Batch of 2 targets.
Target 1
Amino acid sequence: MKNALLLLLAIVAGLVLPIQAGLNARMAKQIGHPIFATTVSFFVGTVALIAYSIAARLPTDQLKNYTQATWAEWIPGILGAFYVAATVILVPKLGAALTFALIIAGQMVISVILDHYGLIGLPMKELSAGRVIGIVLLIAGVILVRKF
């Protein structure tokens, strides 16, 4: 049952990304610049996370552990900002389907590399013929989405 909930969470996370990108693109149009729209998105997200942390009564003493983080552990904030800004720029130009087809293809390519070599602390999972075929099919899907 726990696995089913995790799978459902992953699907829901995937469902909300195009919605987020579309609404962020509308904000960019309203404000006049995609980077400012990204900033607003991160600000609202930060406020929401703080509110959740307070409501859930998360232990704040754990926050002191950030001082022990390596420089690499700070990079996800930059990557997240890049991702959101990229979707704000791309969705109005390419459409949601093509933008996210390309994003998913890129995610799968880097994911199998990270898994295969066990990079950034991930468990190793060797590249297999099935995974390669899956990536090829994703790329074929991108081509079909772009063409039609």
Target 2
Amino acid sequence: MTTSHTPDSLVREFISLLVSRDLSTAAAMVTNDFEYDNGPMGKTFGPEAIEKTLSGFFGMCTGIDWVILRQTSSGTLESGTVLNERDDRIEIHGRWTTLPVAGVFEIRDGKISLWRDYFDKQTIIEVMTPPAG
């Protein structure tokens, strides 16, 4: 499962698994009561829900490249917090778009218990809308 030793490395590994579309391994890195608060898009709870939610969205993407621009963390794998700023690059409908994202992750007992992302809802709606014509 995870080879991480710090909250920082745990979140980096999680993001890397998501980018590689290994959703089942990523879902194994979250707690049973995990909360995914996808900013303006809504919340889901638990490992199965995160896998289902992301597989639907990733199914629309022909390319995924999430870049962590800055990341800071505190605490331990027993109880920690990670904040990051990312450029979530996605390709949908033949167009690459960069979605600036601020993420918050809470770590408990070696797993991610909360993932909250902040981003502009209109940007993601525009990229998910097929081009006219």
